[in-house]
Amino acid sequence: MNTSFSFEDEIDLSRFNTLYKTEAPSDAAPVLHTVPDGRYEVVVAEATLTKSQRSGNPMIRYVLRITGATFRDRIIRKHSAITENTIRFVRKELEVCGMQLARFEDLKSRIHELDGVQLDVVKVTKGEDSNIYFNRSLSAQSQADGVADDDLPF
Predict the structure, then answer these.
(1) Domain spanning 38-135 has what CATH number?
(2) Number of H helices and number of E strands within the chain?
(3) Which among 47, 151, 56 is positioned nearest to 107, based on CA atoms?
(4) CA distance 69 to 32
(5) Taking the model in full, what pTM does it have?
(6) Shortest CA distance to 44 belongs to which of 145, 134, 108?
(7) What phi-psi label fits residue 134: left (phi over 0), alpha (psi between -120 and 50 degrees) or beta?
(8) Angstrom distances, CA of residue 110 to CA of 15, 82, 94, 97, 114
(9) 82 close to 59: Cβ distance less than 8 angstroms
(10) Any idea what DSSP says for residue 10?
(11) Which of 87, 89, 94, 78 is nearest to 137 (CA)?
């Protein structure tokens, strides 16, 4: 969709000319909207299968809401590109979330099952790039022994 818009007649900025010349740029520090590097407890608020705008490769887009005390309810996002080189990492992420697939193409119909999964994650920044790593699931249904804490007899 390539639509061009002409705003020349619609928006008149001339009334700001004098202010623009006389007002000094703001020295106020920018508001930090990013969550710093660290370990967080999160819940998958949304997981969707989409395509990368840059490469056109399929990818999983995760919206993770922090549930721990520090930065509670802040959102962090993770994008996992799906290529021949990254499939092993994507598989590991899905397994950490408790998802086992007989065929990878089944992910299209099961992606919604990731919503609500509770995870322990780490955010790491190197240079300009940051990444989110899934450590382990905090959801009772995906514990290694298959027994939820509530089901223990003592």
Answers:
(1) 2.40.50
(2) 3, 5
(3) 47
(4) 18
(5) 0.70
(6) 134
(7) beta
(8) 54, 16, 11, 12, 8
(9) yes
(10) T
(11) 94
77-83: long-range pairs with CB below 8 Å, 24+ = 77/132, 78/131, 78/132, 79/52, 81/52, 81/55, 81/57, 82/57, 82/58, 83/57
**Residue 119: what residue type?**
L
DSSP 28: P
Are 43 and 134 contacting, i.e. CB atoms less than 8 angstroms apart? no
What are the residues whose beta carbons fall under 8 Å from the beta carbon of 90, sequence distance 6 or more?
Answer: 60, 80, 82
Average pLDDT value for residue range 16-42: 76
pLDDT confidence tier of residue 44, bands split at 50, 70 and 90: very high
Q: What is the dihedral of CA 75, 39, 145, 78, to 10 degrees?
A: 40
Q: Find, among 12, 14, 87, the residue nearest to 57 by Cα.
A: 87
